[in-house]
Amino acid sequence: MPTDSCRSGTVILVTGPARSGKSEWAETLAQQSQKPVVYVATAQRDPTDEEWQQRIARHQQRRPGQWQTREVPRALSQCLEEGECGECLLVDSLGTWLANCLELEDEAWLSMEKQFLSQVKQTQADLILVAEETGWGVVPAYPLGRTFRDRLGNLIRHVGAIADPVYLVTGGYALNLKVLGTPLTPNL
């Protein structure tokens, strides 16, 4: 719970398609915060997947050496709760976190999502949340793919209602949707 001397931190959402520059933009924003940065990695390591290990390594090489890293594949709400006043938590990414929890039944997922959104509003640290945009194309052929797409779309919409600013990164450009867009009221 925030104290009088430290209110809830700033919440920034960075979203966009694959390879658009989301992570790089989020890292730039974290550096600009001039606060100690904690990089919250939601990816799970898989030593049998060489390409995945290379992706993780590229992300690690881009980050400044003084940044702390926390690997948090599932307990994201607890990690945000531990965020401290005066630090910046960069969470990369919400889509990967959701994928790690995809086996949850709808009711359990909705409870986890509600807890996460509540913690986003309460954390004392500044938050930069990276999320993948899905659903701009073909409807997934399989139920699990549709569940992922729908859950992530809803999550991003709810986080977008909380965050300010909200950036859409596409084609190597970051657009502040809170300045350019008209908000819709999410059904929370």
Automatic annotation (TrEMBL):
Enzyme Commission code: 2.7.1.156, 2.7.7.62
Recorded superkingdom: Bacteria
Keyword list, A-Z: ATP-binding, Cobalamin biosynthesis, GTP-binding, Kinase, Nucleotide-binding, Nucleotidyltransferase, Transferase
Catalytically driven reaction(s): adenosylcob(III)inamide + GTP = adenosylcob(III)inamide phosphate + GDP + H(+); adenosylcob(III)inamide phosphate + GTP + H(+) = adenosylcob(III)inamide-GDP + diphosphate; adenosylcob(III)inamide + ATP = adenosylcob(III)inamide phosphate + ADP + H(+)
EC category: transferase
Pathway: Cofactor biosynthesis; adenosylcobalamin biosynthesis; adenosylcobalamin from cob(II)yrinate a,c-diamide: step 6/7; Cofactor biosynthesis; adenosylcobalamin biosynthesis; adenosylcobalamin from cob(II)yrinate a,c-diamide: step 5/7
SMART domains: AAA
Molecular function via GO: adenosylcobinamide kinase activity; cobinamide phosphate guanylyltransferase activity
Keyword Zinc (UniProt): no
Pfam families linked: CobU
CDD domains according to UniProt: CobU
Ranges for domain AAA+ ATPase: 8-163
Family the entry assigns: Belongs to the CobU/CobP family.
Function: Catalyzes ATP-dependent phosphorylation of adenosylcobinamide and addition of GMP to adenosylcobinamide phosphate.
Protein name: Adenosylcobinamide kinase
